[in-house]
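User: Here's a chain of 361 residues. Predict its fold as tokens.
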Amino acid sequence: MKPQSVLAAVRGIAISLVVIHHANAGISGWLLRDMPFAWGVGIFQYAAVPIFLLCAGLSISRISDNRVLLLKASVNYIYIYLLWFVISVILSGFVAKANVSVSMDLWGSLHSFCFPRGPLWFPYGLAFMLFFAALTARMDRRAQIALVIALGFLPMILHKDIVDKIFCNMSFFFIGLLYRKEIIKVLSRQAGIVFFLCLSSYIGLLLLAALVGVAYFPPIYVALGCLAFGALTEFWRTAYRPKTAFKVASVLGRAALPILVMHDFWIHAAIDVLHRFPALTAFSSPLSDRSFPLLVALFALVMSLVSYELLSRHHWLFMAPRFITTHAVTRLEQLRSAWKLRSEKLHIPTTLTAEHPNPIE
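Assistant: Prediction complete.
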């Protein structure tokens, strides 16, 4: 199978897990009482975002050493974040909550903009990761990955939600960005054997880490995410995979970004309907407690896909126009050149030479 097809299916499962998690979180405050189901959904928090970011790194790994293209990609995600922040504020104010926590005061709105919560942290965080990759593009990749893993300990010092989300998960993006050949080489072997090893190792390590309480310790978290990615990838490569499910997952994976920025709105739209028509939940039972989050997640996935099909002709909604990325990168390069030139002019030689007999002069 082509790696692009497999990665699309893997991305599809990852975005589905993200949507299920958000649907469960949105409903659990007033309906969900079945804690084993909630714990079952919570288990995937160690897999969904790491898999998603690993796929993101793999998808642009061919430009890992190209600073200009990395900067353009970073500007693209900044644009997506800014645009959908505004759209989400409008939707939250007039229709239903979407992606952001709207505040009535200026400081609260500014805080929400600088430290996003909800799904919009992903384009925000990915823009930062790409910018960091551009800054370190000339470093040896072993030094890059060591630096990124070291930064994974930062949330243990700075207790901020966005810091936790970015720096805990940045390692996965860089693993995909820098180690594409090695990853494909490992995952191109006997699919069944690699699938069994990755899945059993993931389950064993997760149980042990949960028992000891170190599941979010950076090296353990990185290992869990990589094992989950390997297990899911090899699952789709096995000979007995369901072809229809593979096609559905691939469709979701190819529309992962539109689903990411739109699904939260559709989740809250569904919750609003459930609130307005309590008869829909009047006969709640353990079975419906489990099914409601899944039904809401399915509704959000379908409506996000439908919305994307209707809006896909407007490319500027999901990708920055070329003139914006080109102008922004050109401006950054000009600033960098000006700073470099100024630094050279301010440099004072420390030794006397024939050309510079007196550095003061």
